[in-house]
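Notes from hallway chat w/ T.B., transcribed later so I don't forget. T.B. wanted the structure written out for a chain they're using in a teaching module, and asked if we could keep both sequence and structure tokens in one place. Agreed to drop them here.
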Amino acid sequence: CRRVDEGDERARLAFDIYIHRLKKYIGAYYAVLGRVDVVAFTAGVGENAAPVREAAVAGLEGLGLAVDADLNAVRGDEARLISPASARVAVAVVPTDEEMEIATQTYALVIGSGNLT
């Protein structure tokens, strides 16, 4: 997002394509599921890039999605809602620990079967 803010046209194009794809996925899941209870942003970009979260939800108000700018700007280590209370669909930021999850699943696989083959 920094390079977008600095006026880098290629960064802006990459950002716009990324947001377009996020919106397509949200819309596709909405269409397939018939409803959405929560949109969760997680991992590196989802946890740390408030502009991505804001842009991904912008224009999807008709689906019940909205982001509260103040809540979205807050950084933290805990799962939190960033949607206003009036939104029909909750929007959340959920921290992850990918390395721990990989270690946990690998441990379960190795202990469960005795080996990896």
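Follow-up for T.B.: Residues 9-33 form the longest helix (25 residues). Might be a good example for the class.
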